[in-house]
Structure formats: C-alpha cells, structure tokens
Amino acid sequence: ITAWLEIRNVLIKYNIPYEENKSEGLITLTNGSTIMFKSLDDLRKIRSMNLDYIYCEQMEEVRDFKVFQELDARIRSEVMQKDYGQFMMVVTPETQGHWIYENFHRNPMPDSKVIHFHYTSNPFVDEDYIRRAEELKNRDYDSYIKLTLGKWGKVGNIVYENWDIRESPRGYEYFVAGMDFGYN
C-alpha cells in the first residue's frame, strides 16, 4: 500500500499520465510499461510472471530465501533478454542472522551490489527526525545501529547483551562463563 501510494504521488506530482487498475494491482503508463503491486505472502501468486525489473520495499520482512529465489527466477521477459533485468531490494537492516545479510554481505551472490546509505545521505530529512534518530544511541543502541546508521545488528535473541572483556584477577588469560536452561 505504501509503495502504491508513493508511486501514485510521484506520477501526479510530475503530471505523468497513467491508468490504474486497483483490483488487479496495476499501474500502466502511456508507453506501455506496467507496474504491478503484489503481496509476497503466497508464492503461487507470482509463479507465472515474466518480469523485467523487480523493486521490493522492506525486503527484510520476507523471511524465506525461497521467496527471493522465486522472484529472481521471474526476471526473464523479452526486455530482460535484450538489456538486463534488475532486482532492487530496499532493506532496513535487522540481525546478521537474516538471509539477506548472509547472501549479500557475508557471502555476496555473484552480480550483486550493495549500496549503503542512511539519513545523513538524505538532504530532505528534517531536524526533528535527525534528533529522534540520534536519541536512539542512548536509549536502544541496537536500534540505533540498525535504524540510524543503517547497519546490520547483532544476532537476535541473545540472553546477555551488555558484556565486556576484563583481565582476570586470578591470572587467567580469558575466563568465559555461560549457561543453558534448555528452553526459550
């Protein structure tokens, strides 16, 4: 819904003529290009598509790598064969355990490119937004890392978050303690 509204607003702002079919989730431009808006909750909804380009907003909400693979396999239309197809994912980083981190940061897929930016790259961000983004540093550092700096956070669901390394008073080089109660 958000992407649909944003694209419509841009088309209206720049007086670009288009036709809209809300029930099918389509916006058609006068040059014949079609923008489709589809939910990714059911792979059967996208299996028969032949696409040129894919843009996916908030891709981190897609929890299964198989959804990415299915979408990527849909970039196979006539235009793609003449030129090239692209899959653009916009991501708000989560934990390093997410499949996006694994496949695009830790062990990058061939022909992929990561472009990193955050609010300081946006000249249109107002002072109130900047203040709230920077306040996260002292209130919730993990959220600050992800939401303000646009970096991937630590692996989620750890028990102890605040730990440090100190010299042992007993002369040990390192001393590590841990426990496992066997349940979540």
Specify the overall morphology.
extended
Share in helix: 25-40%
The number of distinct β-strands equals 5
Q: What about the largest sheet? A: 3 strands, antiparallel
Q: What average pLDDT do the residues reach?
A: 84
Ends: how far apart? 35 Å
Strand order in the largest sheet: 1-2-3
What would you say about this model in short?
The protein has 184 residues and is α+β, with helices and mostly antiparallel strands. Helix content is 30%, strand content 10%.
Notes on the protein architecture:
There is one protein chain. The protein is of the alpha+beta class and 184 residues long. The chain has helices at 2-13, 65-73, 78-82, 99-106, 127-139, 141-148; strands at residues 18-21, 26-29, 34-36, 53-56, 86-89. The strands form 2 sheets. Strands 1-2-3 form a 3-stranded antiparallel beta sheet, with no helix packed on it.
Give the topology, please.
Layout (H helix, E strand, L loop, with lengths): L1 H12 L4 E4 L4 E4 L4 E3 L16 E4 L8 H9 L4 H5 L3 E4 L9 H8 L20 H13 L1 H8 L36
Parallel strand pairs: 4-5
Antiparallel strand pairs: 1-2, 2-3
Helix pairs in contact: 5-6
Summary tags:
alpha+beta, 184 residues, single chain, two-stranded parallel sheet, 3-stranded antiparallel sheet, 6 helices
